[in-house]
Amino acid sequence: MSIDARALAEPVPGTPPDREALTAAMQHANLPALVPVLHQLTGDRRWLAEPYRPTRSRGMDDNDLGGFPDDVQAEIRTAAVDAVLEWAGGRPAAVPTPTGDGLLELLRLAVGEDVPAEYEAMTAEDMGFRPPEPAHRVPEGTAFRVIVIGAGVSGMLASIRLTEAGIDHVVLEKNDDVGGTWLENAYPGAGVDTPSHLYSYSFAPRQWSTHFGKRDEVLAYLRDVADAHDLRTVIRFGSEVTRAVYDDARQRWTVTTAGGEALEANAVITAVGQLNRPKVPDLPGLGEFTGPLFHSAQWPAGLDVTGKRVAIIGTGASAMQIVPAIAGQAAQVTVFQRSPQWASYNSVYFTGIDEAVSLLMEQVPFYRRWYRTRLAWNFNDRVHPSLQIDPEWEHPERSINAINDAHRRVFTRYVQAELDGRDDLLAKALPDYPPFGKRMLLDNGWYAALRRDDVELVTEPVAAITATGVRGSGGTEVEADVVVLCTGFETHKLLHPMDVRGRDGGSIHDVWGPDDADAHLGISVSGFPNLFLTCGPGTVLGHGGSYITIAECQVRYIVEALTTMAARGLGAVDVSPEAHADYVARQDDAHAAMIWTHPGMRNWYRNAAGRVVCTLPWRIVDYWGMTRHVDWHDFTVEPVRP
Ligand code: NAP
Questions:
Q1: pTM for the whole thing?
Q2: What is the Å distance from ligand 1's center to 341 Cα?
Q3: 542 CB under 6 A from ligand 1?
Q4: 497 and 628 inside one domain
Q5: Residue at 282 is within a domain
Q6: Which of 485, 519, 548 is the C-terminal boundary of a domain?
Q7: Is residue 288 included in any domain, yes or no?
Q8: Whose CA is nearest to atom 3 of ligand 1?
Q9: Integer Cα distance of 198 and 447 in angstroms
Q10: Of 222, 67, 256, nearest to 147 (Cα)?
Q11: 442: domain range?
Q12: Is the predicted pLDDT of residue 1 greater than 80, yes or no?
């Protein structure tokens, strides 16, 4: 099956699968996801009790076998085959839409541990067991137009939801295709490090070929979603927005593109991400290198590094993916590391998704949903409590609390095992700051690559680029044919380089200063009426999970605001200075108690003054609740001016 034809529909009864094929596929089932399915299909409560209760996952492990002894595994698989065949043959599921306590009971069963009751609402909706509250629709012909800036993950979502709400809109995209970061980042090894079944829109499941989709597959997915929702008809490609100005008197935004086109709208949604504008360090000699020198996000199409000497600057997520991908192909890879990173092990990182598992997702009702929900639990909020600073903790130089210290021991043992016998590398690659202090990475062959004879790790900050390579601050000279700047993005300059002006012509960059953006819920900025941000300040996930979940929260909130405006005849909505300041104070207080403000490491989440600008301090379930509905007490509203 080609990777561009893998949209996944929910199984429907009526066409019983082949028993033999289903039985064989069951050998590959994730049993903790299968037990709740058994209960839903049969209604039998015995599946909720011992010996059918799986153990919890350790770390990010899928825990396919659920800790069950062989005989219980066999019993679950056999019962599941029978139950699916009966259901496919016409016997309705006994518990098709569990909600409330029933859903919580199944959720706790599936993840093998307690889950707070507050997760019920978010889970029920994500699993489709409770339909989302009907979106308001704007009556046909309503004169209300929105401009969306960007056609990446968030902008595409905004367009889909605006269309559903009947809101006239256009999407302006600087590139010639959808996909945003997934279109632009085409470096070798690029891919997600959130499991793909979670890093998907809740309404657009897919039959992923690997657990952690590589860039081409993620981009194919986004293109398919764009086609399925006919997004290309509302997207203007090759339209880079340079300016957006609000006219108070007319209650309108005027958005200008690099091509000089000016478009008007009642409201603007920015969907430009935080990881879009490459950060190129101001290194001496940058212009002197005679070979290809580029940022990781601008890997030249067709560049082949076979037999070349490649210098990599940086050791973040991008470098960690590039180095293993080119090691062995390049003649020599030299990595300049300013500081080491924590990277953890994932047992299925390299594993393709077996056809058998795909068959289960296609034919076993509810199975995919439970599989995704287990991922959501394991990857989203589970780690959040362990990122709170314990003020009494006696070893702040290495960790922030007892659990974080235990995480440190686990990750340290892993790095020690990977670099066994290479104490020289261990001394260079083992971080001294607490794990999760920078964005946590997944080991995709990084340590194995470092061990290679043709890979060298230089732990000197870069002093200069020369005509023939890179010079470290300790004097190390490295000759290179290609230099790759894996130096991250302008994460503190949100909306940069657009010139965004609100009431009275005030510039958003004057309000925020060079690196200190904030917004109410990360979405609204006081003084900038009818402007809504996705992936705004304080909304990137630092504790794990899928950014798409956050985008879905934001877009739901924004579309509710817009439909309300159109329905009530509101010409301008502006978050009040008090509501804005109150939210930011709460956000900063929460961050002050969390790991990313901890001294002793550098991360791209906080600015020069140490304030965390980028990441969400809340659990996802909290943010889901905060963005559930617009609280109009937070806004000043004006009727449409005649
Ligand atoms: P990054 O995490 O910000 O890493 C930048 C690296 O460059 C760091 O190692 C940094 O060192 C180093 N650096 C920056 N300026 C330097 C200078 N002047 N001299 C020497 N070294 C310098 O950037 P990234 O790797 O592009 O990743 C950014 C984010 O994009 C990730 O955190 C992630 O959210 C996302 N991303 C995700 C994936 C994925 O899903 N797998 C892949 C790529 C990117 P210090 O650490 O000392 O600052």
A1: 0.96
A2: 10
A3: no
A4: yes
A5: no
A6: 485
A7: no
A8: 488
A9: 26
A10: 256
A11: 293-342+399-432+435-485
A12: no
